[in-house]
Amino acid sequence: GGGGGDKASAAFELAEPSTSFHVTMMRLVLLARILLLLCLAASRTAAAKAKGKKSDAADELLYLTDSTLEVALEAHPLLLISVSVPGCGVCDAVDKRLRKAAPELRVKAKAAVKLGQLRIDSPDSPVLGRIVQGALSLPKLIVFREGEALDYTGDDSKESIVKTMLALASRDTVQTLRSVKQAERFLHLDSWSSQHADEEKPPRVVGFFPSNASAAYPVFRDTARKLQGLISFGECFDAAMQRKFLGAPAKKAVLQLVKADKRERKLTYQGPLAQPPLSRWVATHSVSLVQDLSTESSIESHMALGVPVFLLLMPDSYEDELTEMMVAFRAVASSVRERLLFGYGFKDTEPWPVFAQQLGIPASAKGAFWM
User: Fold this and answer.
1) Which tens digits make up the pLDDT trace of 159-187?
2) CA-CA distance, 361 to 340, in Å (whole number)?
3) 3 state DSSP class of 192
């Protein structure tokens, strides 16, 4: 009996650790499953984050509204935006091409160019109203350099966007003139310009400074930023170059406007050192005292200067008396040069019939109109 009892006891004692072992194994399996689920969850989260990062990297556009545009202009010195409204399929197509251009520009322009989409609820956007003059046609691409709006001159293909913005990124708002040859080319004083005297030569503004610590220097830069895209600005700090162009090194700032106009080849600014009067002086003196506005480009360039235009619009029959009229016209224009631009056109000759209609002048109207 004792021997059998010992065997049963032994069997019972052996069974107890066997049950404990089974429970332990179940716990380990359950723990392993939990760990596996946690690993899978972590893996999915990491994959989702990686996907999100990849998506963010692929879409490098800024998404702007009226309330965020001003902040973006302060943060990005060179910004190209596409203006769009909800439901505009053509606008979405342009935005798609911007997204394709963004990575290439980031690499080639070394992050100097930023692209964005400005979504507005209607073309009556108050922010855009201060930027875009007249009716807003969509899609619309606008360049901003240092917060100032410029005309976008390319088309809306990805290749043109990259090419146009790279050209803008490589061009400084103010060109630093470091050699006599460079300055002569800038001011149209080189041999090429003299051999091509019949070609149009746009006006240039050049500032001669003792150093960039001159009080006039920040005013000059602000004016260049304000008028960029309309008139080119150059700066010179080299004493030897100043001696060549001024006759002596500049002891104080000298700001000059150089034109191809024989009557006004070189003008020197004598007004107060502030951006508004300097900008207006450059704008009003960069064009002829009285301008023949006979082409669309001449009309648009006058309007773009941001100074009121006093216009004489007359029938073609007045052309014979124009020489005599110009004497009085130029005298008046000289007396208010700082405040107004003066121009004339013939209302029966293209492109004026359309413009005259927009100004409310009937096609049958006689005589001249002063506006």
Assistant:
1) 999 999 988 887 788 999 999 999 988 88
2) 22
3) helix
